Amino acid sequence: MKRTFQCIIYSVCIGKYIPSMGDVARTLLQRTLRKIPTVKLEETLKKWAHLSRRQQQSVNYTQSKWILHENIVSLCEENGLTTRHVSELEMIYCMENPNLGTWRACHLTDADEDATSVELLSFKEQFKSHLAELIRNVSIKIKKHDNGSVWIRIAWGDNFSKPNHFKPTYVVHDLQTPYVFISNLKSKHKPLLYQGLVLATKHGSIKDAHLSGRSLHAVRDLLMGHYQQSFPTNHLRPLQERNPPITHPNIEKEHKEHAEKRLQVAYEAFGEGDIPKLETATYTLETRFRGGGGMDTLSDGEKPFRTVVQFASTSLLESLRHCVSSGIAEAPVSPLLSSITQKGRNYFVITDKADKGHNATTQNSRAKV
C-alpha cells in the first residue's frame, strides 16, 4: 500500500500541469470555432498568432469538425489562453465577415477644430479611459482594419456583473470621417457609448443617421456616396439593343427613346453600375386618412392614421432601379424612394403639415425606435 501511494505521488509530480481556460473562455472559443468555416480556419488561426508554429502544424484539418475543434481547444488550454485572447479570435472573424448582423449608422456633429487630426493611439486611450469612468466592468478591444477603419469590440457588464463576452457590441469608425457604424447595441448602453465616442473623437454630439442594413459595406458606401452616381442631363445615352428589332422604324424609334429616358431616370434616382446592397426601407405614416367611400371610422377626427410600410428585397435599390428602367414603375420616381440614395437613409416618418390653409404631406425624419 505504501509503495503504491509513493508511485502515485511521483507520477503527479512529474506530470505536466495544464492550466484551465475557464468556462467563459472555453465556451467562447467553441462558439467562435463553430462560426469559422473549416476551409478558412487554418488561415484565421495564423492571423490570430496565439498558437506556435509547431502547434499549428500538428492540427489535422481533415478530421471531423468536432474532433478538430476539441484539439484546438486543448492546444489553447495548453498555452493558458484567457478570454482576452479568445475575444481577439472572434474579432478577427467578425472583421473578415462584417455582414453577419445589422449595422446602424450614426453621424458625429459639432466637430472641434482638431477633430480631423485625431490619431489612433490618442483615440484608443481617450475612448477606453472615458468608458471606464462611466461603467466599472467593461472589456474593450480596438484593432485597425487593413482598409484603415477602426474596429471596437465592447463586452458590457455593470457594477455587479462581469462583462458578457457572448453578446458584444461592435463599432466601426473611420477617424477622418464623422460616421460611426454600430452593431448589437442595447438601449441602456447607448448613452455610455455615445459619450465615449463624442469625447474620444473630439465632437460635440452624435445623432442617428436613419440608415441600417446587414451589409456594412453597403451602409457605408451609401452614406459616404462611394458608388457610381448619375446626375440629371438633357442628353440621353444610346441604349444597347437587347430585344429583336421592331420592323416599323417610327415605333422602334419611339420605344427606344422611352427606354433611354426610363433608364436615365433610374440611374439618376438609384445610381449606376454596382450600387449598395440594402435589404429594407421603412416608412412610418402619421397622416390623416383621406380614403372616403364610407370609411368614416378612419377619416373622422384630427387623429393621424398610423401605419408602417416596408419595402424588402435582397437588393432593394437594384430592384427599384429595375422597376423604373423596365417601365414597371412610373417615372418620375417618387421622392420617398429617391431619398434613400439622395439623403443616405432608409427610415422615414411621413407626417401631415398645414401649408397655407390646406394640408400638405411632407417628409420628415425621426429617430428609429
From TrEMBL:
<dbReference type="Pfam" id="PF05238">
    <property type="entry name" value="CENP-N"/>
</dbReference>
<dbReference type="InterPro" id="IPR052011">
    <property type="entry name" value="CENP-NAC/CAD_complex"/>
</dbReference>
<keyword id="KW-0137">Centromere</keyword>
<dbReference type="GO" id="GO:0034080">
    <property type="term" value="P:CENP-A containing chromatin assembly"/>
</dbReference>
<dbReference type="GO" id="GO:0000775">
    <property type="term" value="C:chromosome, centromeric region"/>
</dbReference>
<dbReference type="InterPro" id="IPR007902">
    <property type="entry name" value="Chl4/mis15/CENP-N"/>
</dbReference>
<comment type="similarity">
    <text>Belongs to the CENP-N/CHL4 family.</text>
</comment>
<protein>
    <recommendedName>
        <fullName>Centromere protein N</fullName>
    </recommendedName>
</protein>
<keyword id="KW-0539">Nucleus</keyword>
<keyword id="KW-0158">Chromosome</keyword>
<dbReference type="GO" id="GO:0007059">
    <property type="term" value="P:chromosome segregation"/>
</dbReference>
<dbReference type="GO" id="GO:0005654">
    <property type="term" value="C:nucleoplasm"/>
</dbReference>
